[in-house]
Structures are given as C-alpha cells and as structure tokens.
TrEMBL record:
Catalyzed chemical reaction(s): L-gulono-1,4-lactone + O2 = L-ascorbate + H2O2 + H(+)
Pathway participation: Cofactor biosynthesis; L-ascorbate biosynthesis
Signal peptide: 1-21
PANTHER family reported in the protein's UniProt record: GULONOLACTONE OXIDASE, L-GULONOLACTONE OXIDASE
EC number: 1.1.3.8
Protein name: L-gulonolactone oxidase
InterPro entries tied to this protein: ALO_C, FAD-bd_PCMH, FAD-bd_PCMH-like_sf, FAD-bd_PCMH_sub1, FAD-bd_PCMH_sub2, FAD-linked_Oxidoreductases_BP, GULLO2-like_C, GULO_Plant
Keyword Signal: yes
Coiled coil (UniProt feature): none
Source organism, top-level taxon: Eukaryota
Length: 590
C-alpha cells in the first residue's frame, strides 16, 4: 500500500511539474478588509503554536506611503511589525504581540529603483523577491555573488535574519556582506512628523546594525547591493562514505568557492558539492531546480502526512528506516540533485550554467496558478509536510570535533537517524566572519537540518532525544550560534551574549526606536533585554523545543518520557523514553 502511494505521488509529480503551481498563501489574513488580522509564517504555525493577531495591516506602494504608515502607528503608540511576501521565518519575527499592533506588508514594495551597470550597483525596494533581483541583475550582465538557496525570500527578509549561501571566499556567502547602502524608516518625535527616513551609505557606522536587524530598528525601504560581472558556475556532486569527514568538513570550504557538504549520518554517506566559478564563456546552460522546492502534487498529501505521523509515533525503527529508504518520507536525494544541463535533461557532470540560474531555486513560486493541484511542499492548505528547521553555526575550528561527537552519537544507534537522513541529513554550509553586529563573529560551518514535527502539540517524536542532544551539543559544547530565522526557542537562550558587538546593536536600536514600537516580547527575549529569555517554563515545554528540560514535568512523564542526560554529551538534558531498550529492540525484531 505504501509503495503504491509512493508510485502515485511520483507519477503525479512528473505529470504536474510543468503544469503550474499555486503560490503560497498570504501570511496576513484579515476578517474585515485590512482590520482584525492574523499573521503567520509560510508553514502555518509559529513555534509556540499561538495565534498572532494584529489590529490592521497596511500595504504601502511607495516610500512616502511607508513613512505615512509608520508615522500613523507611532503617533498612536501602536506596536509595529513587518511581514514579507511569504514570511519564511520560523520564529515570531513578524508578530507584534497583543491585538492592537499594525502589520506593514512589503508585498507591494517590490520594484527596482535603479541599476548602475558601470558602477555595478543595484538598488531595490525591500519587498523584492530574490529571484526577481537575480534576474534583473543578469539581464544587465551582472550577478549577485551569493544568496540563500531558496529564491522565494525577499531582500528585506533575508537581511533581517542574516540569510546566506555557502562560501569562505572573499566576503563570504552572506548577502548582507554585499550591502553598500540602505534606506530605513524609523519612528521619530512629533516635531519630526513621527517618522523619518534614514539613509545609510557605505561606511556609515549604523549600517553594521541595520543590515542584520531582526526587524527591530524600523522598516527597510530600499537596499543597494554591490554586484559582479555575470559569471558561470560548474557543479559536480560526489558521494563518499563519511570515514574522513572530520578531515574534510572544514577544508572543503577552502577548496571550492560555493562548496557545501550534505551528510547522512545514519547511512554513513556524504555528498560533497564541488561548486566553483568559471568564465562566462564556458559552454553550458545548466539550471538548478531542487526537488524539494518544485511544485508538489496535492494528490495523496494528507495520506502521506498521516502515514508519517503513524511511523513517528507508533512505528518501529525498522519500519521508519524502510520508509526512509523507499522515499516515503521525502524523495531521497539522488544525482543530479535537481540540476539539469539545459533546463530539461541531465546528461552528466559537471553542470555548467549562469550564476542566476544555479545559485537559488524555487519553481513552486514561479509557475502559473493551477487551482491548488500543486503547490510548495510546505503549503499548509494541502496537508503540508510539517517540520522543524534547525540551523546552527559551529566555529570552523571546532567543526571536526563536532562531527566526531555526532558520529559517536550515531554509532550508538544508526537507525535513530533514518528520519533525519530522509530529509537530507545535515547540510553543512560555510560562512565567513561578518561585518554586521548580529552577523557571525567568526568563520563557521552552518549545520542545517529539517525533521518531523507533529500537528499535535506535545506529541512524541521518534528519537527526539538524539536530535535534541545534537542541537545542545552544537550550541553549548561547541559554542554554535542559531540562525535568526530558524530554530526552536531554546536555541536562542543567551545566544545574543555571544555576539561581541551586541551592545553596539542595542545602542543603535535605542536611538532608532526608543519607545520599542518595532520590538515585541519575542524580540526582547531573543535580545536578552531586561534579562528575559525565549525559553518557556511549563509542562511539556521540552517536547516542543520551547525549553531544555530540567524536570520530568518538562517532558511527558505520563507517556514515559523523562528528563535525562545526553548519551554522548552528558551535560545535555533531553526527554528520553523510559521504554526499556531491550524491549524496544525486541519490538523491532517482531
């Protein structure tokens, strides 16, 4: 039955791939016009599962309208938050708190302001989607050298969270390192009309705060980015076993300008991405169209989701691993990993193509509307895949030791990693030390992982203790830092204190928004303001990643989950099942 469902889904994918795709739903929905609104993210749920409300939403089309929107809210002393087109952040960055706040959507601030080919500069409004920026630059023979892999983020959104690609070369893979100016609208005293536009050029001391701001300084209106002459990239994927990954994990980023490493610990396999710049005259017209970011058929989606729920909550390790190998949880990554040599067919490595067609992908937002026959895989309207997404940057010089510890954890029970492997395992990307106050303070390897989340609050996840130990190990033993737009609550606890220039950021915040109109309870907790913490101390909190357990009540003792030390990193505290290991092994054999 499961294999038949899989064949149906794959057939549907092949038939519908070229037909179209319904774009994701709007993150802001209002009961009465633009009033009495709720705001969510692309996945339909924030980490605490709470409903976020706002009194109203505004959709400015120009900078003047944006100034007017900020001024109106500032005059009324209403809280403000910015919502992007698709709202891809997991944390509550777009939630003003309470019911009386105002949401400013950048949906219609989506134009190119100027493009100076000679100076290699492009200025865009903050609501411009990444894929449109890349195409505009390419049409002028220019390229943005680095970007995230998902092309559906907006320029303002990706800057707010410090989004990045993968590179240790030059300025590194973070987009904000290529920002040379921006205009930001902030609250102001009544004598100045309640709102002002601040223009921050290259070299302005406040630019280091504004280009990774978590949205707490104001609303970015326009961004100017430095471009490079259009070039091509040559990509080859090589699969090996993980025996020497400790030796390779830091070195790979030095060997290849855009290289990354995808590690499936349970399988003991690593896929190394050899990705380098080549001259624009090199033959090839390759395209990156990653499977996970393509349109996904609605057919069978709810059934597949329910099957995964049953496996996670009641299945055996053997059943989960068989489902993972069969591609029932997610199609297994296979060569050519979504790349084609001409936009249609893969004929072999290397795949060579123009930068803007290789660096990011997202065809599920770039196809004609098809009435919800297909959509992005995570679309909550269609029984979406429901996941957590963790990304933690481990200092480069500690990456090998972290990999060794994860191997020790894996070796205790390789089957515990099957579900994680099914979603790609750990993707290692490279980041250089940043010039931004809230950018990474040192060269690092960013380990990104996605894993199952139940639609039922507090429901157990198979081997959740393993994932939780891995995350705590990265954060606490190895001094890792969480991605601002991903991760669960506990990952942000005390994180801001590890940014050497956090104090300088907060000084700018105090000047730009002294009344904290763009701040919320969540952002204050993440920034450690007044000693607050994003961790939530309540029954069952550790089951959802809202806290690190310190008491059995933080787990689910009624279901046999108790707070216990980690297996390799003993300082970790995780919710482990009290089901006897021997009995569990016997159940698997049966």
């Amino acid at each position: 039955m499961a294999m038949e469902l899989l064949r149906t889904l794959l057939a549907g994918l092949l038939l519908l791939h070229l037909a179209g795709s319904s774009p994701p739903p709007a993150p802001v929905v209002c009961a009465r016009g633009t009033s009495d609104c709720t705001v969510t993210n692309a996945y339909g749920s924030f980490l605490d599962r709470a409903t976020c409300r706002a009194a109203n939403v505004v959709y400015p089309r120009t900078e003047a309208e944006l100034v007017a929107a900020v001024a109106a809210a500032a005059a009324a002393k209403r809280k403000l938050k910015v919502a992007t087109r698709y709202s891809h952040s997991f944390p509550k960055l777009a939630c003003p708190g309470g019911r009386d706040g105002t949401i400013i959507s950048t949906l219609r601030l989506n134009g190119t302001v100027s493009l100076d080919v000679a100076a290699r500069l492009i200025t865009v409004e903050s609501g411009v989607v990444l894929q449109d920026l890349l195409r505009a630059a390419a049409a002028a023979g220019l390229a943005l050298p680095h970007s995230p892999y998902w092309s559906g983020v907006t320029v303002g959104g990706l800057l707010a969270t410090g989004a990045h690609g993968s590179s240790l070369w030059g300025k590194g893979g973070a987009v904000h390192e290529h920002v040379v100016g921006l205009r930001i609208v902030t609250p102001a005293p009544a004598s100045r009309g309640f709102a002002v536009v601040r223009e921050l050029g290259d070299g302005h001391p406040d630019l280091a705060a504004a280009k990774v701001s978590l949205g707490v300084l104001g609303v970015v209106s326009q961004v100017t980015l430095a471009l490079q002459p259009l070039f091509k990239r040559s990509v080859t994927f090589v699969e090996r076993d993980d025996a020497d990954l400790e030796d390779q994990v830091a070195e790979w980023g030095h060997l290849h300008e855009f290289g990354d490493v995808a590690w499936q610990p349970g399988r003991g396999k690593v896929v190394y991405r050899q990705d380098d710049r080549v001259d624009v005259s090199s033959p090839g017209d390759g395209v990156n169209d990653h499977l996970v970011l393509r349109p996904t058929p609605a057919l069978g989606r709810v059934e597949a989701m329910r099957a995964e729920e049953l496996l996670e909550e009641n299945g055996t390790d053997i059943a989960r691993c068989e489902a993972a190998e069969a591609g029932q949880l997610q199609p297994q990554p296979q060569p050519p990993h979504g790349f084609t040599n001409d936009g249609e067919v893969f004929t072999g490595y290397p795949v060579v193509g123009y930068q803007h067609r290789m660096q990011a992908t997202g065809s599920c937002i770039d196809s004609p509307e098809d009435g919800l026959l297909t959509s992005c895989k995570w679309d909550p309207r269609l029984g979406a895949t429901f996941i957590y997404n963790t990304a933690i940057s481990v200092p480069l010089h500690k990456a090998a030791a972290f990999v060794a510890d994860v191997k020790r954890l894996r070796d205790l029970n390789p089957r515990a990693f099957c579900s994680l492997d099914a979603r790609g395992g750990l993707l290692a990307r490279y980041i250089r030390a940043s010039s931004a106050h809230l950018g990474k303070p040192e060269d690092a390897v960013d380990f990104d992982l996605a894993y199952y989340r139940s639609y039922t609050a507090g429901a157990p996840r198979a081997h959740a203790d393993v994932i939780d130990e891995l995350e705590q190990m990265a954060l606490r033993k190895y001094g890792g830092l969480p991605h601002w737009g991903k991760n669960r609550n506990f990952a942000f606890d005390s994180a801001v204190g590890r940014y050497p220039k956090a104090g300088e950021f907060l000084e700018v915040k105090g000047r730009y928004d002294p009344d904290g109109l763009f701040s919320s309870e969540w952002s204050d907790q993440v920034l450690g303001i007044n000693g607050t913490s994003p961790s939530v101390d309540k029954e069952g909190c550790a089951m959802e990643g809202l806290c690190v357990c310190s008491d059995d009540s933080h787990c689910a003792p009624e279901r046999g989950y108790l707070c216990r030390p980690g297996k390799v990193y003993r300082e970790a505290r995780v919710c482990s099942s009290s089901f006897p290991p021997a009995a569990g092994a016997l159940r698997d054999e049966l």
